[in-house]
Specification:
This protein has 119 residues and is an all-beta fold. Strands 2, 4, 5, 6, 9, 10 and 11 form a seven-stranded mixed sheet that branches. It has a four-stranded antiparallel sheet with strand order 1-3-8-7, with no helix packed on it. The relative contact order is 0.32.
Length: 119
């Protein structure tokens, strides 16, 4: 099992910045990949950014150049730095981790943190 705890959400004005953190109960070396997803009201959950065990990153087109995913392995913490935020970035942001358990890849989720971009 992997326990994930997000923090850092809040209210920010358009054009502002916000940083999210996600602490995992397992070592980063045990995880295949970690990522951030978001879900706006009435919308499906979508991938925002992900980082693999090897350090490769992938971003949704809508956030490229504005968001940066990173991690601190000794602290077992995943980050999402969000710049130039737009109202359409408003959503609940979820931390995600994938781990290989007995030959099966399992996905784990945090409880989510609300990000609201509004003037």
């Amino acid at each position: 099992q992997v326990h994930l705890v997000e923090s850092g959400g809040g209210l920010v004005q358009p054009g502002g910045s916000l940083s999210l953190s996600c602490v995992t109960s397992r070592s980063m070396s045990e995880l295949i990949a970690m990522g951030w997803y978001r879900q706006a009201p009435g919308q499906q959950r979508e991938l925002v950014a992900m980082i693999t065990h090897g350090g490769n990153t992938n971003y949704a087109d809508s956030v490229k150049g504005r968001f940066t995913i990173s991690r601190n392995n000794p602290k077992n913490t995943l980050y999402l730095q969000m710049e130039n935020l737009k109202p359409e970035d408003t959503a609940v942001y979820y931390c995600n981790a994938h781990m290989l358990i007995e030959a099966s890849i399992e996905a784990f989720w945090g409880q989510g943190t609300q990000v609201t971009v509004s003037s």
